[in-house]
C-alpha cells in the first residue's frame, strides 16, 4: 500500500453482541497496512470469550491469535489515559466503534469519559474529526434513538449493523463482510468485501 494513503485509526470494540464485526474490521485494516489503535472494554472481553472462544485470561495471546504479529497494531488498556489517542494533539484520521453498545453510546452522547474509549470518542467530537458508531442492539427504545440523534446532529456517522441481502450472501462471512465493507466505505478505504449493487449488470448476471 502507498505509504501516503496510510491511515491512523482508532477502533473501539464494546460489549455488544457482534464482536466478529470489530475483529474482521481490524483484520482488514491491518491487511491493508493501516495503523490501528485498538480499545476493548471489559464487557468486550467477555463477549470475546462467549462468541469467539478466546481464552481471555491470556489477553496478549488472544490478540495475537486474532490479529497476528503486526507493528501497526497498538492495544491500549481502558485506564491508560497517557495513550496518545487521549489527546487532540495526536494524529488520528478517525475512530470507529464496532460494535457499539447502547451503554457506551449513551455515555458518549452525554460527554462522559470514564475510560479511554469514551475519552477518545470525546476527543474526536471536540476536534471535529471523523467518528463512526456501529450500534448493535434490537429492539431500540426512545432513549437509544434520542442518543443516536444527539450524536448524528453533531455529525457523527451512525452505521447500524444491518446487513443487506441483495448480494445474495451464502455464508456467515458474506454477512459480516457486508457490514464491515459499509464502514470502510465511510472511510473511503477501497475493498472488495462484497459485490456492489449494479455489479451484477456489468457482469451480465441477474
Draw up the topology in text.
Blueprint: E1 8-13, H1 19-31, E2 35-40, H2 42-52, H3 59-67, E3 73-76, E4 94-100, H4 102-109, H5 116-126, E5 131-135, H6 142-153, E6 157-158, H7 172-186, H8 199-202
Parallel strand pairs: 1-2, 1-4, 2-3, 4-5, 5-6
pLDDT < 50 stretches: none
Q: How many DSSP H or I helices?
A: 8
Fraction of helical residues: 40-55%
For the record, what CATH class applies?
A: Alpha Beta
Name the helix and strand elements from N-terminus to C-terminus, one letter apiece. EHEHHEEHHEHEHH
Report the C-alpha radius of gyration, rounded: 17 Å
Number of strands: 6
Spatial order of the strands forming the largest sheet: 3-2-1-4-5-6
Q: Distance between termini?
A: 34 Å
Instruction: Compute the number of structural domains.
Output: 1
Biggest sheet record: 6 strands, parallel
Instruction: Give the percentage of residues in beta strands.
Output: 5-15%
> Would you tell me the structural class of the helices and strands?
alpha/beta
Overall geometric form: globular
CATH-wise, what's the superfamily?
Flavin prenyltransferase-like
The average pLDDT score comes to 93
| CATH-defined fold name | Rossmann fold
